[in-house]
């Protein structure tokens, strides 16, 4: 429940500011609302409500017909005034209503520009020349149905007193039940603006009203003045005005559905601030309530005035179906019956008013209803400002709980189904939103729970219930036949139902009483899937089960047969039959146990099921009666940690292993023991089966055998789970062992980084023939471990990292096992590259990188200065001498003595046969050449190198 104070000024508005009609100033406040009115087209009714000054701007107010709407598409449209209602001698409320059909879905901004605001607005410079602009944004989408924006039911006709906190609440109501949010906004308008302008712009020079005045402090005197809006309640508060005058502010009301914003309204309003000695009245309203639909809400609201003045009480909100100008909404914004409040006439202090609302099923919704009550005083004597106080009252309405829920197993004993029935719902479908559903919830086990219909959703899930289906609200029966989760024989189930309404209403009923039922057990129950030994080829698992209850061995349907099926993995589905066991169901025969051999229990868990067959007396043939639920072996994992081993285990079984004490066994011999019980682990959370072994032994009955967890030792484990079926017929304790598994603690200390060296090249010592015609190369790496440093010396391998270019991040090239500390990197196209080495400890810790060592190539290129292209096979081609080394790319350009280019080629061979680019021989003589060559270097971004020189081309006499 929120309380806020609002000073009102009606009579003072007549004389506070000396306006003249010729000034043509009239706009104080307003907003634009919309509602879709057609199911077959995107047609909207758009309503603008504006509040006009009838003192200083009566002439302009008279002439404000039409106004011009911009619908977010196309030009402005003239809209005639639909009504003009006198609020008081100073103000009228004007409505303009238009109908518009949008061509398609989209986001549209509806705007209206009216030429002049009031004169002398303190926080808007030259306000008389500034336009009054409104904007509402809507999402047009057929999927939103007949959506409407919220309506603002509390008129924006507010005044404030200097030094006193002022608050306003728009009493926003959304008929669709969408969620609303609020935020401040800078008013819109432009100087010398024209009607019909569709472009919205923030007011130039607008000032936060809290920055105007000298003593800008809050009412309590504890800090600076503030202007805030509560994003949830919509309370807009200015704490507190410092100077008299009129001010304009604006705020936005956002409309949200399913986490998506589908629209927003801007309310622009004016506040008149005066100085007054009058004390504001006080009002007391009931606490917020949450009631079941059909409840008659009748509450008294009381008010007092400290000055003894007479007071008037009034109320605003959606339940009244009354517009801000006092009209009854038609069409209605809420279903009947409507709320009432009386009296609204002047009373002596203390005064009392009565709020009355007969709720019904049509009022159910997820969002609460907000009712704003107001008391305004009527001070004696002239010249005093009326003061008012507002307080909100929030009402949440939920639907009645479904009644008479019952449950019974399906008539077909061989089926796995439960039939639910309940009484016809008390709220008829006509009173509920379309697509209202009955939601059906189920959980294993039966225990009483409490559910608060006024709390947030999710209570059913929090108590273990799962939604299994929804049906139409007119339904009174449902058959649960394994939807979403297989029903289990011998398990007790709890069901509850609840009415849920679609978005945006999102209303719900109270949760029904629970009904509990057992699915009859006429087939065996698997009780044990326990690992007897852990081997990769000769592992053993023992499977046990119960005899089927309810089967009479003498009823003529024997003999009977169990068929055992197995699948690999905790959730395996590749079931194959591994045994068929004939039985007469004699209690003296051991026919409910099977030892499964030759398994790989090291790598796998296994899953089992049993099919039960009876003999058809008519045909003598075996027929399947039913099949058990699948049950897996327990799967244990062990991970080495710092002086510890962390264990976790799981099982996929039809019974519950939760809320039991599981047992942890340890051995230093191997995965098959012998084992010593070292801990009893209480399991309190579903499927959270974990234990950390620090070497202790907390179970003394079999002898205490603690160990010091060492990285040099391996420790082996197995776990014994304790479980139980939830049905009363199978309350025996179920003990099952996991496979054995071994792990070693780890040491998190890292090795020291090695010291790396790579064989080098002495470029100065190379001859022109070095590496001639060689196509592959190799680099030899050697490294050493540092002899000092606090690091792990237990190194098992070295990781070698390589990058062909310096500056690149190296990648893993190879690994070598310790104690080897050399590596030959072969089959390279050049020597260029960079290397790092990292040591890896026995516990898997990798050291930091060694020093990085880079090796470069020794490029070489030498061109001749004469050649004789005479076809004798000797020196016929101009090309590099000897063996050029590590050339990646090259370009050769040849020009004659006059600078004319005769030949150019990008062939990496850099050959020229003495012909021009047209293939004709060039004459003998001296030519200039330029070679641009890119060598393979460890600096991959190194620029190309340029070689320039001359070459003499010799031809026999007379050659051309």
Automatic annotation (TrEMBL):
It comes from the Bacteria. It comes from Larkinella rosea. This is Gliding motility-associated C-terminal domain-containing protein. InterPro entries: FN3_sf (IPR036116), Ig-like_fold (IPR013783), T9SS_type_B (IPR026341). Residues 1-24 form the signal peptide. It holds the Pfam family CHU_C. Keywords: Signal.
